[in-house]
Write the structure tokens for this entry.
Amino acid sequence: MIPELGHFALALAVALAAAQAVLPIVGAQSRDPRLMAAGPALAVGQLISLVFCYGCLVWSAVVNDFSVYDVAMNSSSTEPLFYRITGTWGNHDGSILLWCLVLSICGGAVALFGRGLPSALRARVLGVMGIVSAGFLLFTLTASNPFRRMWPPPIQGAAINPLLQDPGLAIHPPILYIGYVGFSIPFAFAVAALLEGRVDATWGRWVRPWTLAAWCFLTCGIALGSWWAYYELGWGGFWFWDPVENASLLPWLTGTALLHCAIVVEKREALKTWTVLLAIATFSLSLCGTFMVRSGILNSVHSFAVDPTQGVFILTLLAITIGGSLALFAFRAPVLAASGVFAPISREGALVLNNVLLCSLCAVVFTGTAYPLFAALFHVQLSVGPPYFHLTVVPLLVPLFLAMSVGPVLAWKRADLAPALLRLWWAGAIAALIGIGTELGLHRAFAAAGFAGAAWLILGAFAELVERIRLFRIPLGASWSRLRAQRLGVWGGAIAHAGMGVTVAGIAGMSLALSTIVAVAPGQTIAFGGYQWTLLAMHDVPGPNYTAQVADLRIMRDGRQVAVVHPSLRTFGQQHQTVTDTSIQTNLLRDLYIALGGEQGGKVVLRLHVNTLAAFVWLGALVMAFGGALSLVDRRLRVGAPARRGVVGVPA
Amino acid sequence: MIRFRLVVAVFLLALAAGPAWALSSPSEMLANPVLEKRAEAIGMQLRCVVCQNESIEQSDATLAAQFRAIIRRRVTEGWSDKRIMDWMVQRYGTFILLRPPFDPMTWILWGAPAIALAVGGVAIVLARRRHPSLPEPLSVAERQRLAELLK
């Protein structure tokens, strides 16, 4: 009964989305306030039915209703409740439903928080979101319905992949999807602007917070995925340039560019056409990231799992959404006249450089990821792996990082480079000292360059603040009161830039990481990386749906105990699969990372890593997201938003 | 293409049979740290042909372990890095290289950063030409006059 209610709610959501796709846009074109007002109501209705629908799926998983195909395939009564719930999005059908749910949450958010928007713009934005929603909901209902029944139901479900039975990965999809799908809002605003033929500062002011929110979630989502790979795969690496990882990086790169561009639109009414194109590109890449990977095009090994009709359906949807918006762009973009002019050396100019570099990075990552497919067209098989990405990405990152600190100290409209660089001399000097010191001390060029770059980014990030409070040029007390008067947005930008520096420091530190594989007998001590590692004992521990082989390992340094850790190997009986559960002992400056291998002739195989500054890699991402969140709560973003008008907007 | 299908089939079999993400054994490693480091560097450049985007140093597939063993044997036999790589490519094709070679097929791939930057540069030049440029900054005489007027 409950799954049928969910099924019904899904069908209802399709109908509401279809209405949302048509009525508000027709209303905006014909200036009919009643039709335009239907937009928010339909968006909220769609949200409510999808929340109910997803609730039904979760309910079916919680009560172990194995007559529902998706529950039978991806859940099991032996699993803890948490994984039965997260299992609903740990598979193809459920994750697409979650994707649709997040999209409807975005629509609902525009409907509820966008009351101050000009009503025609709001109607068009909601209409565009309705079109996207209708397409993907129809796909869910017809081709990947999670409520399909199975008869006779199996006695026990197949349970989710043990690799996914992990808290980090369990919460990963919702966060990543909020990031991906959040970009549908700037996309809808961009398409609405094209329909309307108008982009102005007001538009920029509405687009930026939504973009920022999506960007924060995507940043956290990517970091979480990378962290999961670090501790779960047991190899100590944090980024493998895997197609799935690259797919999440692409919208992040263009999204970052969009974020900066929206500032220019808001403040200077320049770069409008480009901002609109970036908004379209970012959501298009989000769509590709979510669905290309699933449709089996990028990841040929997984194509066996997916029904070919699903792939064709998804490709058609992608072609309509992406191709349609790009065609509209080509047709309507000339209407959007730029008004703000600026000199090449200016804040705007720096942001253009930022955009060129970020988009080039995106193009390189895209080319590298898609090239094997391209080569396959010519019957050539080739692999594009980490060595390619390292060689091509680093030369683009260096100018980006150099410019990142300079840009914020440049004036709008027209600036002089020399005084701006003079304001940064102290940051440059400290960065150079750190770099030279590292090189002389360790003779590791990559790490030296990385630490210098990190110092440049972190110090440079606060150069604008130092300038604003006139530090050491006026009495310290006066500087302090100026500092307290700074807007949160200024802090947010500085902190986000510094976060990038923290990540760079982490990556540079990881290039100094040490690792080894050893086979030890209980009681034996190994000296490695300045630590003494003693295997105390091995024992078996039963888990809820697995048995774990646990090693007790004591780590000493200079005769003092640093930690006792318990890496384990979990064997999931139901799937005959073994998962390493690594132990990570961190003090933020270094991770002691231990993965347990099998036993060999009375000895236990252990992989030991001493990962310098590993935590900084993800800490930096969190700092970036925190900076974004600070900007988001800046009063100006809300107070400065246009007042309610409630009248019909100016037509195109 | 047929070989690729085979590879996929092997991969699916490997998934069903072996424990994923086990660790390789230390007995594989060479006693001489310099040689071991060289072997690792070579291994990191080679793709495990039965896995998704993993180097043979990272993979736990049996085939990758065999490749690791071959490389280590060649390294101890005194082969140069280049000779080992060439030997691998000769046997398994360029597919095995994680860093694709520079040849007509990969010109676009390796040229991607330059092409992207060039496209960006051209777009900027075109956009600037289309839009009105900023008025010239004030000349010295104008600035003096402005200062006088503002006194």
User: Anything to note?
Assistant: Residues 2-101 of chain B form a domain with the Helicase, Ruva Protein; domain 3 fold (CATH 1.10.8.640). Chain B has a mean pLDDT of 77. Chain B has two domains: 2-101, 105-150. Residues 107-130 of chain B form the longest helix (24 residues).
